[in-house]
Write a structure and sequence with these properties.
Layout: H1 2-18, H2 20-23, H3 34-38, H4 41-48, H5 54-69, H6 71-82, H7 112-121, H8 124-127, E1 130-131, H9 134-140, H10 149-159, H11 165-185, E2 190-193, H12 199-208, E3 211-216, H13 219-243, H14 252-267, E4 275-280, H15 286-297, E5 304-312, H16 314-325, E6 329-337, H17 350-361, H18 375-379, H19 386-391, H20 403-426, H21 445-455, H22 459-464, H23 467-476, H24 480-492, H25 495-514, E7 523-526, E8 537-542
Parallel strand pairs: 1-7, 2-3, 2-5, 3-4, 5-6
Antiparallel strand pairs: 6-8, 7-8
Domain Methyltransferase: 166-344
InterPro entries: Methyltranfer_dom, METTL25
Organism: Macrostomum lignano
């Protein structure tokens, strides 16, 4: 626990000083003059002086790689973070829990080089508190397991069907790890809460012979998962043969015999050994989950495991609490995502305030806060902020010059121009203005501005503004586009630190809850390749 606390302290010390930067909203880049207002002259000059936009990301990657291999470089970064003072008084970014968009960071770095190094040092792999592979996790917990060739072949058969490269990678790795852990820990049922399309559960059932219960709040997801799994079962033997390199065409007699074998195995003695059931339900608490397990699976005391592949927002925190509160839950493997959907205890954004008001009007009980969970950060009343949580889903390594990225950058630029245009025309802006993802529909700023004003209910204003006036904004502020993107990249350097703060807080909370028992301590484990699946860390725990 001490190493986790030390890592969390390093991350929060960096965020204490720079949190206004990831919380800065790109829409306000021009209207609040963020380039001059948030950046010291030296940093702004260095950003202007970059020969390419990618230079900043490559600098971050260079430091990250050195931190993983060069002990002296890592120690220098640790000394910098350990010696970094927190602002006194603290930055007033969330007065009374409300976001202050005028707050500015306290700059502790005079060069992009040292800032990139310290941001890289706050990545989970550089903090040295997470297992960097499942093999490392098993070695740490002094357990071992193996997957036979038949299981590996079955997994290959499954992932080759109806999934993209990213999802295939995730389902393959997650299913293998869940299967190994379940067998080594004596867990005979895996419960996937928030199962979505059901790929993980179907793979565990078909490829690994596990007993799986899928629970999702949306009936449409459940119906789709059942249909998808039924189709897979019909094709399963062919997919297995194809994975094994045996794809000969069956004779009618061989096909009928295979179908009879499939039908008999579905109704025979093996049914108790493996199955996959899918239901629609909103799980209220740990006792409700236990009741569902008994009702649907007949498990009257046998250990079960809670699993989740990219569990969305608040649900990831809820599953940690279910694991803690369920005596029969012997295993947890959870990969979270969608940090923007978390509820914070000590701050809210304008759009979150509006959502809470709408929920209160409908007598909807607000969710329990999902951050912070640990006593360490609760005592500090630590806040992150919605914009920073949105940024945490960005991966600096994936910010390449792809067509999708260029489209996103141009859309961001157009949105900034629209904000300035509306301020000039109306004399005000509104934090609740949302135009949505309209960039791909708009070949130029003129089309974007017209559609954006329509989306904002400002069609009458749009009619009063000439085409020439709108087009003139793009020409007048053309020099801003490059600065806007580099400011965005600078903010993205802090994204791994924000994600590390969220995940270390969850891990520390579990450690605080479970430290009295005899079980191995919970761990963070990287189970996916980060470039393929940026949300690549799972929280793994067993009792």
């Amino acid at each position: 626990m001490e190493s986790v606390c030390l890592a969390l302290d390093r991350v929060t010390r960096l965020l204490d000083n720079y949190l206004p930067l990831p919380n800065a909203h790109a829409n306000d880049f021009l209207t609040l003059d963020m380039w001059s207002g948030m950046l010291p002259d030296g940093i702004a000059s260095q950003l202007d002086g970059l020969s390419r936009d990618r230079d900043l990301i490559e600098l971050f990657q260079l430091h990250r790689n050195r931190l993983l291999t060069d002990e002296g470089h890592w120690l220098s970064a640790c000394q910098s973070l350990d010696g970094m003072p927190s602002p006194n008084p603290p930055i007033d970014i969330f007065p009374n829990g409300q976001f202050n968009k005028l707050a500015a960071p306290v700059w502790r770095h005079t060069s992009l080089d040292t800032l990139a190094r310290d941001c890289a040092a706050c990545c989970l792999d550089c903090l040295r508190v997470a297992a960097q592979s499942f093999a490392e996790l098993e070695q740490h917990q002094q357990t071992s397991s193996s997957t036979d060739e038949a299981s590996a072949s079955s997994t290959s058969a499954f992932i080759s069907h109806a999934m993209g490269i990213k999802k295939s990678h995730e389902v393959e790795q997650m299913s293998i790890i869940c299967d190994r852990l379940a067998r080594s820990r004596g867990v005979d049922l895996l419960v996937d809460v928030g199962s979505g399309k059901g790929y993980l559960g179907a793979c565990l059932y078909l490829a690994h012979g596990q007993r799986v219960l899928e629970i999702d709040a949306k009936p449409g997801n459940t119906a789709g998962a059942i249909k998808r799994r039924d189709n897979l079962e019909e094709k399963w033997r062919f997919l297995q043969r194809r994975a094994e390199g045996n794809v000969k065409r069956l004779t009618p007699e061989e096909y009928r015999a295979e179908q009879e074998v499939s039908a008999s195995s579905a109704t025979g003695d093996d049914e108790a050994a493996s199955f996959c059931a899918s239901i629609s339900a909103v799980v209220r608490d740990a006792q409700h989950l236990a009741d569902i397990v008994v009702e649907k699976c007949g498990a009257k005391g046998g250990p079960f495991g809670l699993i989740g592949l990219h569990t969305c927002g608040q649900l990831a925190c809820t599953l940690l609490q279910f694991y803690d509160q369920s005596p029969n839950c012997g295993l947890l493997v959870n990969v979270g995502c969608c940090y923007n959907l978390l509820t914070e205890a000590f701050c809210t954004s304008p759009c979150e305030q509006l959502q809470r008001q709408q929920e209160a009007a409908q007598s909807i009980e607000p969710p329990a806060p999902g951050f912070p969970l640990s006593a360490r950060l609760q005592a500090r009343r630590f806040c992150i902020g919605r914009n920073a949580r949105i940024l945490a889903s960005q991966s600096p390594e994936r910010l390449a010059d792809s067509e999708d990225q260029r489209q996103m950058h141009r859309s961001m630029f157009y949105r900034v121009l629209l904000q300035q245009l509306l301020l000039d025309q109306l004399g005000r802006t509104d934090d609740n203005w949302v135009v949505g993802k309209i960039g791909k529909q708009c070949p130029d700023f003129l089309a974007y501005a017209r559609l954006g004003m329509k989306r904002l209910g400002l069609a009458e204003l749009s009619e009063q503004i000439s085409d020439e006036c709108i087009v003139e904004y793009e020409h007048r502020f053309a020099h801003v586009e490059r600065r806007l993107f580099r400011f965005f990249l600078l903010r993205c350097l802090l994204a791994p630190a924000v994600e590390a703060c969220i995940l270390l807080d969850r891990l520390l909370w579990l450690m605080e809850r479970l430290q009295q028992g005899d079980s191995p301590p919970p761990r963070l484990c990287r189970i996916f390749q980060p470039k393929m699946s940026p949300r690549c860390y799972a929280i793994v725990a067993s009792k």
